Amino acid sequence: MRKTCKKNHCFWCSTTGFTLIELVMTIAIIAIIAIGVFVAVDPARRIGESRDAQRWSDIVAIAKAVELYTADNGQLPDDFNVSSIDVGEKVVLCSSSATLSCDGQSEACLVVNDADFLGPYLGSLPIDPGKSAVTDTGYYVTRGSSGSLSFWVCSAYASTGIAMDAQVSLPSFSSVCGDGDTDTGETCDDGNTTT
C-alpha cells in the first residue's frame, strides 16, 4: 500500500530542499565560528609562532643574500668581511653604530649599509617583528664553530634559538691587544696583534 502526501500533512513528505544560498550561508557561518575558536584557543601562541616564522624567513633571506653576493663577487660583502668576530660572540645587525640589547645582554653593533649589498642582493635590512626600527634589527651574526658566518635571532617566542648558517666563511679570527678582550688568560695592552 502506497502512502500519499497531503499538503502540510507530514514533514517527510516535503519535496523542497536547501537552496544554494542557504547552503552557502550555513558554510560561511560554520567557517566564521571555526576561525573564532581557532584564534580564541591561544592567541598569544598563534602570534608568537607567526612572528617566529617571520624571523626565520628574515635570517634565511640575509644568509642567502650574503651567499649570493659572495658567489658573484668572490668575497664577502664589505660589512660582513670582519675578522674580529669570535665563535659565540654576538654582534647585532644595525644601520647605525650603537650598543644594543640582544637576549638580555649588551652587545656591539655591526653596521650594514653597503650599497653594493643592500638593494641588489637584500632589498633592505630586515627587522624583527618585535622591533620597530632598523637601528636595532633584533638579529645578530656570530662565527660558527667551523668559521662560518652564522645568523641568529636575539629573542624568539620558541624556547629554541632560530639560526641560519651562511655557506661562507669569515676571515681567520684575530684581535688587537688593548681592545679590552682577554687573550690567553689576561688582558693585553701592548698594541700587538694576536691571532
What does this structure look like?
- The protein is an alpha+beta fold and 195 residues long.
- The protein has one domain.
- Helices cover 27% and strands 21% of the residues.
- It contains two helices and ten strands, in the order ααββββββββββ.
- A six-stranded mixed beta sheet has the order 2-3-1-4-5-6, covered by helices on one side. It has a two-stranded antiparallel ribbon with strand order 7-10.
- Strand 2 and strand 3 form a beta hairpin.
- About 3% of the residues have low confidence.
The topology string of helices and strands comes to: HHEEEEEEEEEE
Alpha-carbon Rg, integer: 29 Å
**Major sheet strand order:** 2-3-1-4-5-6
Profile the largest sheet.
6 strands, mixed
Shape descriptor: elongated
Uncertain ranges: 182-187
Mean pLDDT across the residues is: 81
Overall structural class, as computed from helix and strand content, comes to: alpha+beta
* Total E-strand runs: 10
Give the number of domains: 1
Helix content: 25-40%
Terminal CA distance reads 103 Å
Number of discrete helical segments:
2
DSSP strand content: 15-25%
